[in-house]
Amino acid sequence: MATRSDAQGQGIGTLVLNAVFDHVAAEGGDLLWCNARVSAIAFYERAGFRTWGEQWVIPAHGPHVVMWRRIEPGRV
Ligand SMILES: CC(C)(COP(=O)(O)OP(=O)(O)OC[C@H]1O[C@@H](n2cnc3c(N)ncnc32)[C@H](O)[C@@H]1OP(=O)(O)O)[C@@H](O)C(=O)NCCC(=O)NCCS
Predict the structure, then answer these.
(1) Is 12 touching ligand 1 by the criterion CB < 6 Å?
(2) Is residue 29 part of a domain?
(3) Residue 71's domain spans which residues?
(4) Are 31 and 68 spatial neighbours (Cβ–Cβ below 8 Å)?
């Protein structure tokens, strides 16, 4: 995911993540994971994600790590 550079820091990324959490819960999912840029770890941690495993490099996109979080079944 990405927010246009001139619109970052205004809560748009958080709104998108919350919509994703609601969608996963509505579909009966209870765990969400992603391949996160290392530079975005703090953003995902604020949203309840934790890192898992070792980092690796995606050529042209830089270092990444798997991040995950549980989704509460009753959030929608
Ligand atoms: C990561 C990204 C999607 C966040 O989108 P955003 O719309 O700026 O996010 P928000 O405004 O909801 O930010 C929520 C909080 O996280 C913080 N935050 C955002 N990006 C951050 C980052 N890369 N590192 C640390 N903190 C970050 C914000 O300062 C904000 O903090 P606050 O609640 O104290 O104000 C955006 O910075 C982006 O597009 N980055 C470039 C692409 C990228 O790295 N995408 C992730 C690939 S996995």
Answers:
(1) yes
(2) yes
(3) 10-75
(4) yes
| Rounded average pLDDT over 12-21 | 97
CA 13 / ligand 1 centre spacing (Å):
6
CB 35 within 8 A of CB 41: no
- How many domains is the chain partitioned into structurally? 1
| pTM listed for this prediction | 0.93
CATH of the domain at 15: 3.40.630.30
**Ligand 1 near 36 CB (within 6 A):** yes
Tell me, what's the pLDDT at 71? 97
pLDDT at residue 76 greater than cutoff 80 = no
Specify whether the CB–CB gap between 34 and 48 falls below 8 A. Answer: no
Judge if the beta carbon of residue 62 lies within 6 A of ligand 1: no
- Amino acid (one-letter) located at 44: Y
Q: What is the pLDDT of residues 37-58, one digit of tens each?
A: 999 999 999 999 999 999 999 9
